[in-house]
Each structure stands twice: as C-alpha cells, then as structure tokens.
Design a protein that fits this description.
40% strand; five-stranded antiparallel β-sheet; single chain; alpha+beta
Length: 127
C-alpha cells in the first residue's frame, strides 16, 4: 500500500513546487524537481520511510530519475526513482568496532503538482 505524504493547507507546512512547475517542459526538469524537493525538506520523510538496509536516511547525496510523466486537467504527475544512502550509526566511540558505512537505498515517489498554484503532494510507492 502506498504511503501518502500529502502536505496540504491544513497541514503545518504547505508544499509548493513553483520552479518544478515552471520547468515541466524543460530538459532539466528532473534536476529542478530534485533541487526544490531538497530545498523544502520534503524528501526527509519519504526517504526515511523507504529505508530497507540502514536506519537513518542521508539526504545530502540523492539522485532522481524521472520514470514517467503525465499531464491531467488539473495537475502534472511524475513518477520518480530516488537513489540515496542510509547508515546504521554506532556509538561513535573510539573503540567502536562498527564503522559507519553508507548503504545504498532506492525508493519511488509519485509527485503531483497542481497547475493553478503549484501545490504538490508526494506519495511513497511500494516496491
């Protein structure tokens, strides 16, 4: 079952993606979408929820690949694959025998951007 990360006007934070909306027809759309999602902090929840190997998502080095794009009457829809890393943090003591190594992770998200005001929803998709 997909996990929905909808951020609406009734939530504490409204997610809007005006730059991604404007770049919809541009060849750099994926890069613009990723930059805006990172800038807003909107990826933290879905990446943390999507972890399979580690226990803490690292959001610094995320890559996004647009898998599908479609247009509806009211919104622009994107299915995107995100590759990132997670870690299993140790105690960080000098004698800690378990080094913190980065573990590869992958999730797929559906992003819907409303045409009228660039309000957006994120949905974490199941494998």
């Amino acid at each position: 079952m997909p996990q929905n990360f909808t951020l609406s006007t009734q939530s504490t934070m409204m997610l809007t993606l005006p730059a991604a909306h404007s770049a919809w027809t541009q060849p750099n759309f994926g890069a613009v979408l990723l930059a805006e999602l990172q800038q807003t902090g909107a990826l933290i929840g879905p990446l943390q929820q999507g972890i399979c190997r580690g226990s803490h998502a690292l959001t610094d080095d995320v890559s996004l690949m647009v898998l599908q794009r479609s247009e509806g009457d009211d919104d622009l829809r994107v299915k995107a694959g995100l590759s990132y890393f997670s870690i299993i943090p140790g105690c960080a003591c000098e004698a800690d025998p378990t080094p913190m190594s980065e573990l590869p992770e992958y999730v797929e998200l559906r992003v819907a951007i409303r045409r009228t005001d660039s309000a957006a929803t994120l949905e974490l998709l199941d494998d």
